[in-house]
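Good day; I would like, with your permission, to put a structural problem before you. I would ask you to consider whether the tokens describe a fold that such a sequence might reasonably adopt. The full record is reproduced below for your convenience:
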Amino acid sequence: MKKLLFFVLCLVCSSPLFAGGGQTGWGKIIEIYTHPSWTEVKIDGFSNNPDACGSTVWYSLPLEKNGNTAYNSMYTSLLTAFTTGKSVTFWVSGCGGQFSYPSISSIRVK
């Protein structure tokens, strides 16, 4: 019984070590800013900063040369959502962009 309790305690105490990233709420894209190293989007309706980035005014999508191999399809999703007025939610992980904004890892359009 003590071993089981110790095991459960270890799992609970170590869970913050796996923290990082999180999902935003739903919102609409109100502005897009493209730079040679990233694209940033401003959203109306939500804010999430799971990795304590500098600000959540914008969300950053790093370009392919920075390690994002799905940049083109993700950028297309952002533009489509923006032009059609669809709501989006992001999975964000880490920080990037001009002033250390939450970095977009995946996009869902509704």
About this structure: Strands lie at 22-23, 27-34, 38-44, 59-62, 87-96, 101-109. The mean pLDDT is 81.
